[in-house]
Design a protein that fits this description.
This protein is mostly helical. 48% of the residues lie in helices and 7% in strands. The protein is extended, with a radius of gyration of 19 Å.
Length: 116
């Protein structure tokens, strides 16, 4: 498996941004490894992946349910606003056909880090 062969490289890249970063590997049922810990999840019916994978693994569900994300509410509100803008006719036309949209829209800057 490519990930097993390049695990040290992957870990170095992830930790280059923050030394406290850890990698959580999640894969479909049947994917196993002797070198890395993989959380197995069964795919959805008539699909090749699980779309709501946290709810399909009890450990992951408990882990993420018990952790508080300080800006979760703010992020959800911003996401809902974005969906509303995207679904309006003007928003769809504007985002598809306006050459100069970068001058009108705010640039997203990711600056939040969580220590899990």
């Amino acid at each position: 498996m490519w990930i097993e062969e390049n695990f040290n490289y992957i870990q170095d890249v992830i930790k280059s941004y923050n030394q406290n970063n850890e990698i959580m590997f999640i894969g479909n049922d049947g994917i196993i490894s002797e070198k890395i810990n993989i959380f197995n999840i069964s795919p959805d019916e008539n699909d090749t992946v699980a779309r709501k994978w946290i709810k399909k693994n009890q450990y992951l569900n408990d882990f993420f349910s018990n952790y508080s994300f300080p800006q979760k509410e703010k992020s959800l509100i911003n996401y809902q606003k974005k969906l509303k803008r995207k679904n309006k006719i003007f928003g769809r036309v504007f985002s598809k056909y306006c050459r100069f949209k970068k001058y009108f829209l705010k640039e997203y800057n990711h600056s939040v880090q969580y220590n899990i």
